[in-house]
Design a protein that fits this description.
This protein is mainly α and 87 residues long. It folds into two domains: 30 residues, no CATH class; 49 residues. 39% of the residues lie in helices and 0% in strands. The relative contact order is 0.14.
Length: 87
C-alpha cells in the first residue's frame, strides 16, 4: 500500500481510520482481493494449510446450501492467493 496514495487499498474501504494511522489495517487485509497485499514464502504454508479444512467440510453431505456456498467462496479466495504466488 502506498500511504501517499491509498486509492484501491481494499483494507481501507469503508474503514474508520484512527488519527495518525499509516499503512494497511491488518485485520481487514484481504490478500485475495488486493494486489497491494504481499504474500511471502513464509506465508505460503499457512495458506496451503488453509485449503485443507474447507475441502474436508465440502466433502461432507451435511452442509446447508448457504454454508456450502460460503465455504466455496472462502476456498476460492485461498486458491486465488496460492495461484498468485506459485510455490
Amino acid at each position: 500500500m502506498n500511504d501517499n496514495d491509498p486509492a484501491g487499498a481494499k483494507c481501507l474501504e469503508d474503514a474508520i481510520i484512527p488519527d495518525g494511522h499509516r499503512g494497511p489495517l491488518l485485520d481487514r487485509c484481504q490478500p485475495a482481493r488486493c494486489p497491494n497485499s504481499i504474500i511471502t514464502p513464509e506465508h505460503l504454508p499457512v495458506w496451503t494449510a488453509e485449503q485443507t479444512s474447507p475441502h474436508r467440510l465440502l466433502d461432507s453431505d451435511t452442509l446447508a446450501p448457504n454454508h456450502r456456498r460460503s465455504i466455496e467462496s472462502e476456498l476460492k479466495e485461498v486458491d486465488h492467493v496460492l495461484n498468485r504466488n506459485p510455490q
